[in-house]
Amino acid sequence: MKRILSIIIFLLTIISLSAQTGGDNTYEFLTLPNGSRIAALGGHNVSHYDNDVNFVLRNPGLLRSEMHNRMSINYINYLSDINFGYVSYAYDLENVGTFAAGMQYINYGNFLHADETGEILGEFVPSEYSFNLAYANALSSKIQYGINLKTIYSSFFSHSSVGLALDAGIAYVDTAKLFSAGLVVKNLGIQLKPYTPGNREPLPFDIQVGITKKLRHAPFRFSLTAIDLVNWNLRYTSVFSNTYQLDDSNTENFLNKMGNIGDEFIRHFVVGVEVIPHPNFYIALGYNYRRRTELAMQTMPKLVGMSIGFGLHLSKFNISYGLASYHLAGSSNHFTLGINLDAFYKNTKL
């Protein structure tokens, strides 16, 4: 066991030394929140214990037999005319494990095709797709493991790319204590066909850890998710100076108390809270500190970095909505329709 732990620490050290920050990777659409509940909880969650198959894309270890014959359809109206979505379906094979298939896509809107003289030759629509297949099984009554294989296709006019990625995760769930935790290694893979021959780009590799705890005598469920664990330095340097930029007065006040190390530390965490007054209804709130410090305007930070949403569980359908504020210029609207196919007909597992 000590040898295994030493190997794991050694590999994580190598990975952290070569880790990439946001914007330095290809296929960044893989990091976008694929479901409305996830978006409402701050955009990241790898520990939420529910029958929502959207969480499987965040951590395949959360895939379990109770998700059998459930389907989820997501549409996200992103910034400007960018749209993306996610469709998934789960099926459990007794004594084999639980499988889930899904497709993630993003459409960047219409672009003009012009030559060097400015003559308009037409239009084109850049888009990216990820087809994924997940498998999960139980290690014990409380521990579940899962993997998710992604095939990726990206097209930007005359340039296209193909990639392959793998997520591997584990989840610990203690229903008696209303507690769950998750660990996932995300987007471990390679660009099989680069946009430009001989110029392979790194994928948005990440390691994330999270915990979720529901209060026993109050309608609250709290989640804390740590992201970008392979890269400590998430701050950025301005192109206009050699000093780090402070994005709002709240950040300055925080740095005065905690210093740069404290600011770096808290950028790795996303906080989510759910209010559950009834088992069939929830209200979710999220706070993404990193998003706020990077995208909020100094003079008007307002609600940038915050998110909110709600969901309604019916016998056959689940309907949910999430709103995430990225910048004063725009927010993202997330719509999710969950379908319990077993509620429509009697189904016998294979």
CATH fold title: Porin
Please count the beta strands (DSSP E, at least 2 residues each): 16
Radius of gyration: 21 Å
CATH homology superfamily name: monomeric porin ompg
- Give the overall form: globular
The structural domain count equals 1
- State the low-pLDDT regions, or none: 1-20, 238-248
The CATH architecture comes to Beta Barrel
Return the CATH class. Mainly Beta
Give helix and strand order, one letter per element, not per position.
HHEEEEEEEEEEEHEEHEEE
Helix count equals: 4
- Give the overall pLDDT as a whole number: 86
Strand percentage: over 45%
Helix proportion range: 10-25%
Cα distance spanning the termini: 38 Å
* Helix and strand composition category: mainly beta
Describe this structure in words.
- With 350 residues, the chain is mainly beta.
- The chain has a single domain (2-343), classed as monomeric porin ompg (Porin, Beta Barrel).
- 13% of the residues lie in helices and 46% in strands.
- The chain has 4 helices and 16 strands.
- It has a 14-stranded antiparallel β-barrel.
- Strand 15 and strand 16 (330-340) form a beta hairpin.
- The model is unreliable at 1-20 and 238-248 (pLDDT under 50).
